[in-house]
Amino acid sequence: MRRPLDPLSVSELEIVVATLRADGMLGGPRLLAMLQLEEPPKDAVRAWRPNDPLTRIARATLWDSAAQCVSTAFVDVSEGVLEVRAEPGAVAPVLALQSTRAIEAVRDDERFAAALALRGIDDVNRVHIEAWPFGSAVPDGIDASRRLVWTPLWFRPEPGANVYAHPIEGLRCIIDLDTSKVLAVEDDVDSPPMPQTPAPYRADQTGANVHLRDLAIIQKDGPSFTVDGWEVRWERWRLRVGFDQREGLVLHDVRFDDNGRERSIAYRMSIAELVIPYGDAAPGAQRKQAFDTGEFGLGNYTNSLTLGCDCLGEIVYLDVALADAEGNVREIPQAICMHEEDFGILWKHTDETGHVEVRRSRRFVVSSIVTVNNYEYGYFWYLYQDGSIEFEAKLTGIVLTTGGVPGAPVASATEIDPGLLAPYHQHLFCARLDLDIDGGPNTLVEVQAAPLPEGPLNPHGASYTASHTVLATEVAAQREVDPFTGRYWKLVNREVLNHVGAPVGYKLVPGAVTWPMASRDSVIGKRAGFMYHHLWATPNRRDERYPAGEFPFQHAGGAGLPEWTTADRPIEDTDVVLWHVFGTNHIPRVEDWPVMPVERTGFALKPVGFFRRSPGIDVAAPTNHCH
Ligand SMILES: [Cu+2]
Fold this sequence. Notes:
The protein folds into 3 domains: 10-87, Nuclear Transport Factor 2, Chain: A, CATH 3.10.450.40; 96-202, Nuclear Transport Factor 2, Chain: A, CATH 3.10.450; 225-618, Copper amine oxidase, catalytic domain (Beta-galactosidase, Chain A, domain 5, Distorted Sandwich), CATH 2.70.98.20. Helix content is 8%, strand content 40%.
């Protein structure tokens, strides 16, 4: 049965595309930049019951590549176009189809071929060309009002070779995405030679032969979760899985059954932006400041997962569907993986009599993986039996490379093979967490520990207290992590008190975070202004979806969280959205080469005064006796 937050299906996408074509909004120069489910208002979703009529509306972001303008069309799958809104000044994201055409144009460009020939390369088809948005100033002489990409280059010495081992330095093209015209061929003098050390990683190239004995995950009675469409029930949890062309994997309506009472924790959780600022001034690196979510549409690059490799055990997959720039609809089979994992022990105690109680921890995992050029990002959401939720990003794939002079000092890159440089960069994620603790309204509280002043409350010098401060407005809620005070933030419902009279809540537990190295005045600093706080909080607005704004591609900056929060709106006792910025500062290691072992970053949400005791106590002892 279809439900309000189900992702758009193949047939729904096809209907919407046909409607747009019939109305003259799609076709020829008119392209489809993004096709998303327009989620109904929260009240409507909450009020909807099975057997109620279901309204399905798509939000189509349209790019007229001739007129150079964006419009947003809201299309009812049954009723047709409801509304078309002009988006003055907006620029569409990178469209894969246009990138492909831009790369073809580069291959056909005689200036490019001549520059390659000077480097001893006579076959353009052996050059790996990528189309990247500009993350820094567009060079003089190029019309920055056009949608532009530039091309880092690598060489493929033989089929199946790892191209990133062979960056072609000092040569770049700039292409107009809308005309596929090569506007400039930049050819530096005195660029370093191409690094030659191959970096094979395929099994048939490396002869990888370190083996372990088989490890089988057997659930002879099947998994402990049930799936009904996009709704999942596992243990005491219930949630809806979602998918979006821009954000990829989304979780909706996460609830926990607390002794027969189903309680709301989160309404919608997603990674609303992912930006990778590069910190190297080298010509082949300094423009690399990609917004993988907002400029590329992360969901477009979702992998089809394979059993036993990406996911192990009793797996249930969900397929997703997408429309491309021309309106071709495709399905990605096995795009989202759901399974259970044994996760060590949940809790244990041996008492004074020697009696042992121990519980194993099982966790439910819902995940997807994207490939955006060189990098893979796995988005993994975990639900635990103690009421915790965790998000983990798994970063893998191949670090980007540039060429340098072997052995020469470099300021902002690691030399990973002779002359092969991996520039420093950061992976900055921004989670949008629309939590509804016991339905709301919610209030944000900062907790931090501090020693008590010496005196009656601290006679021995070891006493400390925890302060609880309500962060009442948007500006007050712009905060950074502080390990020295153990700072954390909790979202509480002051209308629902627990058994000791305290408001029920969940806390955000930061994991790996980093701090942006780019100055606030830099191009990327302006465009990704959200990265200068680890925490933001806003009153929930349906049109405030992405922390760098709706249209970050070639945007001058300032949009999104920095703009909205200048109003310093009150956020006490309201429907609060938390925005958490986290990530890694990637100073590449030689051991990240040739394919980076998974690097992890993320955060957890843990109940704090939400339950009357640990929900883990209700977990039954294992039936197969421990011995
Ligand atoms: Cu990295």
